[in-house]
Amino acid sequence: MALFGTLFDGLCIIIGSLCGLTFSKIPMRYKDTMMKAISLTVIVIGMQMAFASEKILIVLISLLFGSLIGEYLQIERAFHRFGEWIGSKINRKDTGNTPNKISEGFVTATLIFGIGAMAIVGSLNSGLRLDHEVLLTKGIIDGFTAVILTSTLGIGVLISFVPIVLYEGTITLLATVIERVVQK
């Protein structure tokens, strides 16, 4: 099943967010230590992927053009507007989840979980080769990150699983279609 890695990543974000809501009083020193471990892991994975690439110039150009296109389209601004809209629909004063806090959690988590090579390469691998290893690894990283983010930023982090699953799922499904067309 091509979407296994995507669904696993989404499930990890949900479980991590629910744990973060349940254990919202995680001491800061534990959060800091976990984030350092996650950051180190992501750096090592990124370096491995970069060293494995024989076309580093293509990677650099892709990152530069992707950044420019994202800025031109004001994607981050659109995420903020969408997050504020979601926050206005979920506003629950009894829990302290104001629209701004929900928006901040949603936008922060969506950008952290969605931006990066693991989301794209993992989705492509899932769609083209049915190799889910990158998305499974990303899911575990995202799950632990969701615990930390949710304990700090609240329920908006949980909602971020929706655009992440749509984003990764779309790339995965497009990759399966492209593979079928190419094989003909």
Automatic annotation (TrEMBL):
Keyword field: Membrane, Transmembrane, Transmembrane helix
A UniProt-annotated Pfam family: DUF554
Transmembrane portions of the chain: 6-26, 33-50, 56-73, 102-124, 144-167
Keyword Membrane: yes
Transmembrane helix keyword on record: yes
PANTHER family, A to Z: INNER MEMBRANE PROTEIN, INNER MEMBRANE PROTEIN-RELATED
Name this polypeptide is given: DUF554 domain-containing protein
Organism: Paracerasibacillus soli
